[in-house]
Structures are given as structure tokens and as C-alpha cells.
Amino acid sequence: MTELLTSAQMRTIEQAAIASGKVTGLELMERAGQGVVEAVFEEWPELAQSSHKAVVLCGPGNNGGDGFVIARLLRQRGWAVEVFLYGDPAKLPPDAKVNYERWGAGGGHVHRDWETIYKAEQALRLHMLGASITVDALFGTGLTRPLGTLHNELWHAFDLDTGPIHRLVSVDLPSGLCGDSGRLLGMEKFAVQSEAKGVAPSALAATLTVTFHCRKVGHVLAQGPIMCGKVVTKDIGLSSGPKLPSVVTILPKGCVFDVQAPFSGCIAKGTGHKYTHGHALILSGLSGKTGAARLAARAALRVGAGLVTLGTPHEAVTEVSAQITAIMLTEIDAPEILTRVLSDKRLNALCIGPGFGVERAGEFLPHVLAAKRATVLDADALAALAESETGFADLHENCVLTPHAGEFKRLFPDIAAKLAEPPTKGPAYSKVDATREAAKRAGCTVLFKGPDTVIASPNGRCSINAAVYERAAPWLATAGSGDVLAGLITGLMARGFAPHHAAETAAWLHVEAARSFGPGLIAEDLPEELPKVFRALGA
Ligand SMILES: NC(=O)C1=CN([C@@H]2O[C@H](COP(=O)(O)OP(=O)(O)OC[C@H]3O[C@@H](n4cnc5c(N)ncnc54)[C@H](OP(=O)(O)O)[C@@H]3O)[C@@H](O)[C@H]2O)[C@@H](O)CC1
Ligand SMILES: [K+]
Questions:
Q1: What is the CATH number of the domain that holds 81?
Q2: ipTM for the complex?
Q3: Which residues on adjacent β-strands are paired with residue 462?
Q4: Residue 243: its pLDDT value, please?
Q5: Pocket residue to mutate for ligand 1, from 9, 24, 138, 143, most atoms within 8 A of Cβ
Q6: What whole-number distance in Å separates Cα of residue 455 and Cα of residue 225?
Q7: Looking at residue 296, what is its pLDDT?
């Protein structure tokens, strides 16, 4: 697991490092600028071979300060650099001001015709023609409000005459993107236009984003990936370790983790007989609807549960039994029978929802929850939960809810409405905030699906399994893929994984299996691909 930082956490870390006396803000800014230049040459080695032209757009804060460092370093390599400053040089923060002055002292000119936006637009167009890179150092973690007219003009300057910029390098965060939520502030108008044109929802959608120390939450959530292009993280000497031992301990509460590969030791099966690895019960729907539960059962078995049983209604027994081998079957026609079946304490994890039927789920739910087993509530069980009179009262800490956006809205309408509101100031309400609030209210782990799957638990623990950038898995958008995920979580909980850990691990494996299989994937392929993923992990 690596941490994903909020803007406030990043500021705290920087301030602690500066306060420790081991580094100055100016040194950090120099390393940040160097990091960007390095990343540019790593990304486009041909640019390191000779001198080129760059346009650097600097803002009124320290992000702009990084821009002045980049401009100076490129000029030292013989590049022609045009710098635009949005803001008053007299009001720049101290470190940015020093770098503004260094740029000037070296003979660098600063265009400041932003006040007359029309002129700036013309100037930009003129200078961008022939530039090999454009650097966006307007705003980073200090963005507090929408870009407003500045963005309108950039939109015209970038898009209309010169066409989209093919190498737009963003410093820390694309300007306008909230670092905590991955949402663009005040861009609804452009979102509509860009959707119609099939382009990114902002003029400042980057080709390459270079961030410092750690990725920020906003890089992986919501519009973050489409805005950042590719994210490269550069170390600026803030890493924990002997150099700055205090840094880790001051990290504020509310950390968000990036789900990483599970340790092979945790996923590998230890010694023992089948019951040592748990017994999962997956409740099946009526005939014609049993496929979803069979997919979940197969996934639970492949992920290592010792035994898996499908609780099947009598009328579907022929359909189910014709299609299973290692998976067992027991007849469960009514909620009372389920309660009887669950008197066998070896059945230690349950899954209800896939293909189950909303009405039936409503009847079974009280019995399922009264059993207090590790339980995954998915699909129809979530719809039934949203309609139930008791609401979340019967949920317990060993439950995992796995809503997609539509199900989340039904379960938590007010939270979903808050998340849907167009953001007007930073930091904006995020999917992390929404999932944390939902988990607290439900009193159990919530896995809110999407390319940016967020997993939160009532104790505040939160993780993001981002299937974006190099981990994009568009083939997962296929019928039955959610059933497999529910089965994976159930199987891992049967093996004794705690709910949050099971949800994280399952979400990670789900994406890896899809990526390993690749194009043409259908849900049946996911469980069958797991052995390959495990072998690659060394499990
Ligand atoms: N700290 C460090 O040691 C290091 C920091 N580093 C770099 O610094 C960046 C963070 O710097 P930062 O905190 O100065 O914030 P930044 O994003 O430059 O903007 C703040 C300014 O913009 C203004 N403003 C905001 N929104 C606006 C809008 N829509 N339209 C107009 N104005 C707006 C805001 O005004 P205010 O809200 O205060 O009125 C304020 O004046 C970080 O991303 C990284 O690149 C690296 O060098 C490593 C070392
Ligand atoms: K930026």
C-alpha cells in the first residue's frame, strides 16, 4: 500500500520538512523544477538531444515558482523560453518570488499581458506556435476556486487556431483540477462542449503530469486520469527514512491508500485441510437467473475458499447441478431453511444478491443479517436494502456493500446528491468523502465501484483501487463482472480476511485478472485467470 495524499497532507509534510531545518522551501522548489525537466526528457528523449522552444505559464503561488525554475533550467540548456505570469509579481510568495527574480536576473522576460485577456490570447497563440512543450505551472495544490475567464481564454488559445497542445506538461496537478477529489472546479459548460467534441473537459488537460513525493488523491479519482494524461512522481527529498524521520509520524489522520499487489504470503494458501480455508455459501437466484451466483461461487473457490456451496431454490436445482462440479449445492427455498443451514458454523461467509431477485432478497435479508456471518451484499440485495424498513440497522461490521453508482444513489440519496453537485471551491467533496460517509452511516465496509473503486470502513480506513493509467481495464465492463467481484470478496472472507482487506484484495485481483486476460474478456474468464495472477505474484 502506498499513501495517496490530500493537498493539506502534502502541505503538512512540506512544512514539517522545512521546520526540521533539513531542507528549505527554496531547495524543495528547485528539486521540483528539476524533477519536471528530468521527467520531460525521460518521456521525450528526443527533446534532450538539442535545444527547443517552451512556453511556461506561471501562476500566483508556488506552483508558479516551480514554473520559473523550469524556465531557468531549460534556458540553461539553450532552449528559447517564453514565460507568462498570471498574477502580480509583487504578491508572489517568497520562494516563488526568488525564482521570478532569478529568471529576470538571467535576462528572462515575463509576459504579463493577462490583464488584457484578449491580448494574452493573441500572445499565447503566437508563442505556442513552434513550442515543443507548454508547461502548466498556473495552480497546483493551492487551487481554491474555478479558473473562470482565464480558462475561457486558454480554451480558445489552445483549441481553436493552434489545435490541442500535443505536449502539455502539468506541474503537480493540471490547473483547475482539485487535488483532493479529481474534480474540475466550475467547468460544467466545458464538460458539455467537450463531450460533444469528444475531447477532454478542460483546455489544460495534460499529456504528462509531474507530481512530487506521492501521488495526490485527485490524480486517480473522477476526472483526474483524463486530465493528467500520464502521472510521473518525482522524489524531492521528502521520503520517509533516516533523512526526515519525523515526516511519517506527522501524517494527519484520514490517509487514503492506493491498493497495491497483495503480499504473496497473504494470498498464498497455508497448510491445513479444506475447512481451514473456510466454507462460503453463495445464495442463488431462481432458474434462468442462476448464472450470476454460479460466477460468484466459481470466483470464491478460485480465490481459495476451502469449500463453496450454492444455496439453491428447489426449482433451480436441475439447472444449477448440471453446471457445477467442485462447487456443492444445498437446497434453500425459504429464509427459515437458510437459518437452519447456517446452524453449521463452518459456513463462515455468505453472499446474497447476484441474480437473486429484489423481492426474494427482501425476504431473506433479515435472516442473512441475523446470522452475523461475514456477508457480501451485492446487486439485488442492495436494492432490497434500500427499500427495507429497517434500513441499515441490522447491518454489522462484517458486512461488505458493493454498490455501483446507481445502487449507491438508491442507498445513500443525500450523499450521492452532494457528490453530484458541481464543485465551486476547493477542496471539493470527493468520492472518498462520499464513501467514508456511507460506510460510517451503514456501519460496515462499502466498496463503491467504478474505474476509481473506493473502499471505506466505519473506522475511517479508506483505499482506492484505481483501474486507470497503466492499470486501465476497460474489458471489465462486461455482464457478470460484478458477480465475480462479489464472489472474490466472499471467498477471501471465508479464508479469514477482514472485510476491508478482503474488499481491497478482491478489487485488486479483479483488475489484474482482467488485465492478464485482455481483450475479449467475459466474466467467466476472470476466475479462470486467477491462477496466472497468483503465479505472477509468487503465491
Ligand atoms: N510548499 C512547498 O514547499 C513546495 C510547493 N511546491 C509547489 O507549490 C504548489 C503549491 O503552492 P501554493 O500552495 O502556493 O498553491 P498554488 O497552487 O501555487 O496556488 C495558490 C495561489 O493561487 C491562488 N488561487 C487559487 N485558485 C485560484 C483561482 N482559481 N484563480 C486565481 N487565483 C487562484 C491563491 O489565491 P488565494 O486562494 O490565496 O486567494 C494563491 O495565491 C504545489 O502544487 C507545488 O507545485 C513545490 O515547489 C515543492 C515545494
Ligand atoms: K499546474
A1: 3.40.50.10260
A2: 0.98
A3: 256, 456
A4: 40
A5: 143
A6: 19
A7: 98
User: Which residues define the annotated binding site for (6S)-NADPHX?
Assistant: 62-66, 140-146, 172, 292, 355, 404, 483
One domain, residues 170 and 123: yes
Q: What is the DSSP letter of 161?
A: I
The reply to whether 460 and 393 lie within a common domain is yes
Q: What averages of pLDDT result for each successive group of 10 residues across the chain (539 residues)?
A: 88 91 96 98 97 96 98 97 94 98 96 70 73 96 92 72 74 97 86 71 91 96 95 89 40 78 86 87 98 98 98 98 97 98 97 98 98 98 96 97 98 98 94 98 98 96 95 95 98 97 97 97 98 94
pLDDT of residue 311: 98
Bridge partners, 446 (sequence order): 401, 456
241 CA to centre of ligand 1 in angstroms: 27
CATH number of the structural domain spanning residue 463: 3.40.1190.20
Ligand nearest to the CA of 65: 1
Are residues 403 and 459 both part of a single domain? yes
Are residues 348 and 227 located together in one domain of the fold?
no
**C-alpha distances out from residue 241 to 7, 109, 246, 249, 259, Å:** 22, 41, 9, 11, 22
Instruction: Clarify whether residues 240 and 126 are in a common domain.
Output: yes
Considering the domain architecture, whether residues 12 and 68 belong to the same structural domain is answered as yes
Measure the CA–CA gap between 184 and 51, rounded to whole angstroms.
Answer: 34
* Same-domain pairing of 180 and 321: no
Q: Ligand 1: residues within 6 Å at CB?
A: 14, 25, 28-29, 32, 59-66, 93, 139-147, 171-172, 212, 236
In whole angstroms, give the CA distance from residue 204 to residue 176.
Answer: 8
Pick from 171, 167, 205: nearest CA to 187: 205
Question: Which residue out of 22, 139, 209, 239 has the highest number of ligand 1 atoms within 8 Å of its CB and is therefore the one to mutate?
Answer: 139
Residue 520's domain comprises 275-537
Q: How far apart are the CA of 280 and the centre of ligand 1, in A?
A: 51
Ligand nearest to the CA of 30: 1
For the CA of 36, the nearest ligand: 1
Q: Are residues 147 and 291 in the same domain?
A: no
Model pLDDT, residue 160: 46
Residue 482 makes CB contacts below 8 A (sequence gap 6+) with 354, 378, 379, 402, 404, 449
- For a pocket test of ligand 1, which of 68, 115, 117, 144 has the largest count of ligand atoms closer than 8 A to its C-beta? 144
